[in-house]
User: Fold these one by one.
Assistant:
Number 1:
Amino acid sequence: MKLYSTNNKDLRVSFQEAVFNSMPLDKGLYMPLNIPQLEKEFLDHIEKYSLPEIAYQIASTLLKDEIPTADLKALVEDAVNFDAPLVKLDEDTFVLELFHGPSLAFKDFGARFMSRVMAYFLKDGELLLDVLVATSGDTGGAVALGFLGVPNTRVTILFPKGKVSEVQRLQLTTNGKNVRAIAIDGTFDDCQALVKQAFADEELKAKFRLTSANSINIARLIPQTFYYFNAYAQLKRKGFKEVVFSVPSGNFGNIGAGLLAYKMGLPVHQFIAATNANDTVPRFLESGIYETKPSVQTYANAMDVGAPSNWVRIMDLFNTDRKVIQELVKAYRFTDEETLAGIKEIFDKFNYIACPHTAIAYLATKAYAEKNPTDKGVKVFLSTAHACKFPEVFSAEMQSKIELPAQVETLKNKVELYSELGKDFEGFKEYLLMGDQ
Ligand SMILES: *Cc1c(COP(=O)(O)O)cnc(C)c1O
């Protein structure tokens, strides 16, 4: 697999380079030069395969020249060691639960795969790989747990003090080993700015092998295609053929992977991009004008993104043809009020507790169905996180009914360990230079 930059189609890098660089120097995004098709024979019988088998088939179609078969198989099986079940709500509505991994969010797929790919490419005796991550909540937990115990790597996570939920904080601060957490007295943007400054600092760059783990890394995108194929396999077993996927979207990495899966041959009838008030993409699909805005805070805070970083990739996949994208991807936006009403409706109608991001994807399936009453496609909305990560939005009755997964019970008995720093770069730099503490 060779990759180019969306800003320079003549650039060629290997998969390994793309993984460690994350982003080309020209600030474009890496894209595969050729998007291979899955074998027809495989797709025709996909219902016979398990999630790890499907994941391996996709990974090997893309990466067989990069990682030898046996190694790739072991890597995929280690990364995808949890399920992504499809839960039926009514005759033609299903929720695809992507939160059964260690951090209880879909980002586990990307983070676990990427960490193992990086570890695979690291050679013995090389300088420790230092992963710096800023998180508003979910990314940090997935990356921390993805890299936890992975040899020759160290993770430093910056989170805004007091601005992540309890479960999210525990996932960041109770790891020990090769994972360090820092509570920054500031906002997520302050955390992000510190990480960016570190990457630009000559002294730090000379001393450490710094890498980011953000959602634009191609090794995070690829494994997110796995669950789309697996959902299709589950639906095929139930006799469905036409699928409508509704995806709660922030940086558009999740739906970007769905569209990559489509390009690889996955039959999808319709994609729906569901956003909160941060509606840069819905506005673009309506008006043709792509105008980013500063993000606004919502209950679905993992989607509070005003400038979705993966959108360029989606444009690139479809040769920047807005008409084609408009046909394949319908977009809907919802306010906080509508989100709360959506959570309540899902609970009242289906006795199901959905996190705010998931509720937005549900609302989008309804909006789509209202506009397209003759569409017979089965509606599948993606659930990107477990409800227990966002307790503040639920009524007391719902809160009492949220079943805490085993992962959370264990967390509550662990010791929290983290440093506290201000938002000035000097303090953060000193922390990094001082080494283990
Ligand atoms: C990250 C995240 C999203 C948004 O996914 P993108 O790939 O950035 O569009 C949605 N929901 C949850 C719970 C998340 O953690």
Number 2:
Amino acid sequence: MDKIQMVDLFGQYKHIEEEVNRGIRQVIEGSSFINGPDVKLFEHELGVYLGAEHVIGCANGTDALQIALMALNLPDDAEIIVPAFNYVAAAEVVALLKYKLVFCDVDPQLFTLDVEDVKHKITKKTKAIIAVHLFGQAAPMEQLMALSALYNLYVIEDNAQAIGADYIFNNGAKKKLGTIGHIGTTSFFPSKNLGCYGDGGAIITNDENLARVMKSIAGHGQSKKYFYDRVGVNSRLDTMQAAILKVKLKALDQYIANRQLAAAFYDKQLRLVDWLSIPVRASYSTHVFHQYTILVNSRDRDKIKNHLQEKGIPSMVYYPVALHKTDAYRYAGIENLNASETLTSRVLSLPMHTELTEDQLMYICDTINTL
Ligand SMILES: *Cc1c(COP(=O)(O)O)cnc(C)c1O
């Protein structure tokens, strides 16, 4: 049995090696490293895959959020709701742009925004919600979009962890995550479900006006070379990364299927372990398992992690601290973020990637079963 890894990017590369190498070589031969043809092609292909009108490549997923927020051109005193149990990016861009950061709690089983708490935290100054589709499944978008309509709020979907997942509306209609809110953002960080071989990101929208503004912001605020309409940033998706992403996009559904198979294996083997709970699926979303995150309910999570490590099984804690408990974001204050805090001491993400073998999965599950 090969050594178990949290992610296995080299193993994944071996299946697409020739096509990726050819893509990289073509970029080098064409020497159009910046804004080369593959960037437009990939943006188009991702738009078709997602069913979105506009996809704009940028340098990373954090920039994507920043550009999205800049494009909304909110008043200086705007309040923006973001989950407290989350990666730092959403809170960071709100703080950087000097809007008021309002942390919201998450559902203790689904790990995504708790709609009841969102309702509590909406004020007259609330202008946007950043909904994060954590670990591979959707935040409750239908309810959030209803609040958006009621209170005239923008919704940005941070889809760095759930690209390819479907939202299932009450009436049975389906849409890809990232295409439901006013703007969707994603990251192509290597370990993401659709990852490149460096940094990359994208912004997604069906709003033509927002698309035009975001494209301009990502390119120094120009609409025409050397004529600046607004203050922008420099955030581009490299041509070489786009060439790699074109190859990997074709495999994305297979990658998702592999992750779902691994998750089903874990579910079956771990369902009856009394000290943990397996991930709960939202009724309104498919799950693309960026992470397979269990809750350690009645044991010491960190001890479990160490035991696994001793048996050659890596695991990770996403996330070990709620954002409002960190030095940088404490200023935003605490109001009813109990679930977020509890989760930080219980979550444990098991190895999850496209190359896990049945032997490896069995070994992991057997080990957990005998702990
Ligand atoms: C990875 C990630 C990001 C940021 O992506 P970068 O490309 O590293 O900037 C943002 N939000 C979430 C939820 C992420 O997981």
